[in-house]
Every structure is written in C-alpha cells, then in structure tokens.
Amino acid sequence: MIKELILKNRSYRRFHEDEPVDIDLLQELVDLARNSASGGNKQSLKYILCNSREMNKQIFPTTAWAGYLKDWPGPDEGERPAAYIIILGDHEISKNFYCDHGIAAQSILLGATELGLGGCIIGSIQREKLREVLSIEEQFEILLVLALGQPKEKVVLEEAKDGDIRYWRDDDRIHHVPKRPLEEIIIRKVE
Ligand SMILES: Cc1cc2nc3c(=O)[nH]c(=O)nc-3n(C[C@H](O)[C@H](O)[C@H](O)COP(=O)(O)O)c2cc1C
To answer: Is 39 within 8 Å of 99 (Cβ atoms)?
Structure first.
C-alpha cells in the first residue's frame, strides 16, 4: 500500500551506523530514481554513492541537521548515516533541474523504506566543502544529499496546531512531526 509506505517514510536522523548498507543496494535505489519522471525527460541528474566509513566521516561535517532542534547539533558518532547518495545536476545536460531532484529523492527514500532502511533529505549542505571532499567536477551542481541507514529512532506524525509546524523531541527522544490538516491545505474543491 502506497499510503503505508509514505507514512513509514519519515526523515530519520539517528541510525545504527555499524549496520552497513551494500553499494549494490544503493545502486538499486538510484535505479528507482532513474525510472522516475524528469522535466523534458532531460535526465540531467547524476549520483555519487558512498558507503565507505572513511568517506562518510568526511561527508558528515558538510551536512546540517534538524534546524528546529536548537540544542541538538546532529547525530553523535555511532548514530550517523551508514551511507549517502549525493544528487548532482549535470550542467552539461541542462541548466535547469526543475523538481527532478525532489522526485528522485522521494523515489530513493520510498525504495529504502520498503527495504526497512530509512533516511533524510539534506538540503543544508556546505557545498564547496563537499565538492572538495568528493572531488566533484565543476560541471555538477550539488543539489541534495540523502543520508541513509538503519533507523535508530522513532518518528511519529502529529496534527499541526495553530500553524506550528516545528518538529520536536520528547523526553524519550521520540521525534514528533506536525503535519497541517487536509482542510488547511486544500483551498478549494471544484466538483
Ligand atoms: C528539500 C528538503 C531539504 C531538507 N533539508 C534538510 C536538512 O538540511 N537537514 C535536516 O535535518 N532535514 C532536512 N529535511 C527534512 C525535513 O526537515 C523533513 O522532511 C520535515 O521535518 C518533515 O519530516 P518528515 O520527512 O518525517 O515528514 C529536508 C527535507 C526536504 C524535502
């Protein structure tokens, strides 16, 4: 059921870092993105896959985590992602990537969720630092980083009250994510 999968596909920010994610599995996930919609069918996205502990150590500091959790700087060592997929836009193919990277990210994360993994889309990236770390050529724009692994936290959805959409953590470190109710987001039904 697609609804079940979407509800399960939360943004996870704490992982069992020691549980490796196979590189072939990452490639399977990119194959889902490859078969997804693309503006003008340009297919200008390219990917870097990483499950190397050494490189993960260098990628992690280029990412920023959970801006609303002011007293939490991000996952501790041991709870960091076991793998990353970096989504790049190839300027030699297109100057405009439309919303292709969002679609690709969702395809990859739904695929990961189906396999019992979890992840987080990271848009807050120190791009020049990451470019250096992974020796990314200038023709590629760094669009998104997907952090992946075996989730080590519980995430629950709530109904947003009074428009407050800031996620929060309770004393048991359960992560709560408020979602605006349907009545608020559908502004008109034309029948
Ligand atoms: C385009 C985009 C960029 C995001 N960037 C970050 C980020 O830099 N750091 C982070 O911790 N979460 C990031 N997220 C995750 C969102 O915070 C998350 O989707 C939101 O809190 C709702 O939680 P949910 O995904 O479980 O529904 C991003 C999500 C999207 C779609």
So the answer is: yes
Q: Is 165 in the pocket of ligand 1 (CB under 6 A)?
A: no
The answer to whether the beta carbons of residues 97 and 141 sit under 8 Å apart is yes
Using alpha carbons, list the distances in angstroms from residue 36 to 14, 32, 48, 107, 170: 28, 6, 18, 7, 37
- Test site for ligand 1: of 79, 122, 167, most ligand atoms within 8 A of the Cβ: 122
The CA-CA-CA angle for residues 49, 53, 59, to 5°, reads 60
Whole-model pTM: value is 0.98
CA of 190 to the centre of ligand 1 (A): 31
Beta strands in 61-113 (DSSP E): 83-90
3-state secondary structure of 117: coil
41-59 per-position pLDDT tens digit? 999 999 999 999 999 999 9
The candidate with the shortest Cα–Cα distance to 16, out of 155, 153, 162, is: 153
Best residue among 80, 121, 180 to mutate for probing ligand 1, ranked by most atoms within 8 Å of CB:
121
Is the CB of 121 within 6 Å of ligand 1?
Answer: yes
pLDDT digits (tens, 9 = 90+) for 22-41: 999 999 999 999 999 999 99
